[in-house]
Amino acid sequence: MRPILLPFMALSVITPLHAQSSKLDAEVDRLLPQVQAKVIAWRRDIHEHPELSNRETRTAELVANHLRSLGLEVRTGVAHTGVVGVLKGGKPGPVVALRADMDALPVTEEVDVPFASKVRTTYNGQDVGVMHACGHDTHTAMLMGVAEILAGMRKDLPGTVKFIFQPAEEGAPTGERGGAALMIEEGALDDPKPSAIFGLHVLPFPAGDIRYRPGGIMASADAFRIVVRGRQTHGAQPWNGIDPIVVASQIVLGLQTITSRQVDLTAGPDVITVGAINGGVRFNIIPDSVVMQGTIRTFDTAVRNDIHQRIRRTAESIAQSAGATAQVVIDTFTAVTYNDPALTQQVLPTLREVAGANHVTLTPPITPAEDFSRYQQRVPGVFFFLGITPPGTDPSKAAPNHSPRFFVDEAALPTGVRALAHLAVDYLSRGR
């Protein structure tokens, strides 16, 4: 069993380097100790009772009841199980939004903690374990703590804070809609509309550190499906048919030349991965068709569109050269998670004040995707990363997000609470 570091051990990490300049900032720090234990308790409760995308009913109820207890205006059932809370300050001012995601993953937990998930359910027809293997339990708990802090100082807040607790960030189940796109469609950014939005994600690097990046910080994500159709025949007489397995193999190699030889790599990194190939039922039968599935990751819209065209051309041309056909379908999911450069520069002093200047660093872009990007397409936003790897552990050897061994050092959570709370009050205090 790995040691669980209590939140009070994080005080040395989160103590500001110098006194906060504003009354609101000082009030945030005064109220923080009152919610630290609650944040840990909420996180452990949510972790022990994880729920998959669009099924976050228990989590949503926990969140909604807490927000109501704070006197917020609460709307439930947004995008199936989403919760939106509105805190109106006692003074006029702008509107700022803070977002957390609530869903877990179909992963069987292997972390030895007392609150480990033992939940099992059916996912895509399979019996699976359910685990918060991406840290969304921490995101939800931290934002609940932020809501309590800011509600405790509402009379002095110059504006409005909108709390968005979102389901299905990991993607809605097959045949369903969900996530940020549906939240927006059902009014999560309306009445009142925020002029800025902030969010964070935990990642395995030193606990309490913050990493940021102006511009593209996380990739866009698209899925492609290619159906290669040949002509079935006996495996001992391939000349009597058209072998879609060989054609599919050539397409896999051809797709890799798009990123290595056709796209300008100085425009930003990109990835084309074939994650699944299915075809054939017997060792001596060449099948009639093969189905390939994969993902595309980019950091530039023009590059993204160009790659889509090149995938279609490559697959169709290779298939045609062998007398086969290739049908290409590309589904666009999330856009680039793009941090507004001016807003990022504006909030950088706040992040440095929270974690300490030496603990806030520029991060390279990463290829996982986030549907927080949907909000950023509507309003300027900043998304940043919070480290959760305990001292003494090499982050390069720590289990990554989506691993059954993903571990969170809870000592980092107060830093996340402070960061979101200070970002909100500092933004409101500037009046824009």
Description:
There is one protein chain. The protein has ten helices and 18 strands. The relative contact order is 0.19. The protein is of the alpha+beta class. The N terminus is likely disordered. A hairpin with a 3-residue loop joins strand 1 and strand 2.
How do the strands and helices of this protein lay out in sequence?
Blueprint lengths: L10 H4 L8 H26 L8 H13 L3 E6 L3 E7 L2 E11 L18 E4 L2 E4 L6 H16 L6 E9 L12 H7 L10 E11 L3 E3 L2 E4 L1 E10 L3 E2 L9 H19 L8 E8 L6 E2 L2 E10 L2 H21 L3 E10 L2 E3 L1 H15 L4 E3 L9 H5 L4 E9 L23 H18 L2
Parallel strand pairs: 3-6, 3-7, 7-18, 8-17
Antiparallel strand pairs: 1-2, 2-6, 4-5, 8-18, 9-16, 10-14, 10-15, 11-13, 12-14
Helix pairs in contact: 2-4, 2-10, 4-10, 6-7, 8-10
Key words describing this protein structure:
single chain, alpha+beta, eight-stranded mixed beta sheet, four-stranded antiparallel beta sheet, 18 strands, 33% helix, elongated
**Total beta strands:** 18
Number of helix segments?
10
Shape: elongated
Oligomer: single chain
**Mean pLDDT value:** 94
The whole-angstrom Rg is 24 Å
Profile the largest sheet: 8 strands, mixed
Please give the share of residues in helix. 25-40%
The SS-based structural class is alpha+beta
Along the chain, the helix and strand elements come as HHHEEEEEHEHEEEEEHEEEHEEHEHEH
* Strand order in the sheet with the most strands: 1-2-6-3-7-18-8-17
End-to-end separation: 47 Å
Binned strand content:
25-35%
Low-confidence parts lasting 5 or more residues at pLDDT below 50? 1-21
